[in-house]
Amino acid sequence: MTLKLEELEAMRLKDIEGLNQAECAELMSVSRQTFQNIIESARKKVALALTNGKGIHITGGKYTYNICTYTCQACGVEFSMNFEGEAICPACGAENTECLNKEKFCRENCKKNSSL
């Protein structure tokens, strides 16, 4: 059984993080109907694998990895970049930036999210 990465992410957001469907869809940048289709497919695959004693192979799909959206506290510009780098504003060069995703998905890996 092959589970796409977006199916796994849909299950994580809904079933582990406990977000509602609208929040999940927004975080995944899809419509609510598309999110519903993704999570239904994921849950069916997992249920079939569990009840039939099959393995689950997680691969493929459409996803973005290690990307956070930041806002510059100096000039107000919003920008996206890999959260493992230093979040320096591309417009004004300021280092005083804030991660806008810290409550959503980047969790412990985000340098701007030391509270989690």
Annotate the secondary structure layout.
Layout: E1 2-3, H1 5-16, H2 21-28, H3 32-52, E2 57-58, E3 67-72, E4 78-82, E5 97-99
Parallel strand pairs: 1-2
Antiparallel strand pairs: 3-4, 3-5
In short:
The chain is α+β, with helices and mostly antiparallel strands and 116 residues long. The chain has helices at 5-16, 21-28, 32-52, and strands at 2-3, 57-58, 67-72, 78-82, 97-99. The strands form 2 sheets. A 3-stranded antiparallel beta sheet has the order 4-3-5, with no helix packed on it. The chain has a two-stranded parallel ribbon with strand order 1-2.
Written description of the protein model:
The chain is α+β, with helices and mostly antiparallel strands and 116 residues long. It folds into 2 domains: 2-58, Arc Repressor Mutant, subunit A; 67-109, Rubrerythrin, domain 2 (Single Sheet). Helices cover 35% and strands 16% of the residues. It contains 3 helices and 5 strands, in the order βαααββββ. The chain has helices at 5-16, 21-28, 32-52; strands at 2-3, 57-58, 67-72, 78-82, 97-99. Strand 3 and strand 4 form a beta hairpin. Helix 1 packs antiparallel against helix 2, helix 1 crosses helix 3 and helix 2 crosses helix 3. The longest helix is centred in the middle third of the chain and has 21 residues, at 32-52. The model is unreliable at 112-116 (pLDDT under 50).
The CATH C-level name of the largest domain is: Mainly Alpha
Under CATH, the topology of the largest domain can be stated as: Arc Repressor Mutant, subunit A
Mean pLDDT: 82
Instruction: Report Rg.
Output: 17 Å
Order of helices and strands: EHHHEEEE
N-end to C-end Cα span: 34 Å
Number of helices: 3
Question: What structural class should be given to the helix and strand makeup?
Answer: alpha+beta
List the strand order in the largest sheet.
4-3-5
Number of domains: 2
Backbone shape: elongated
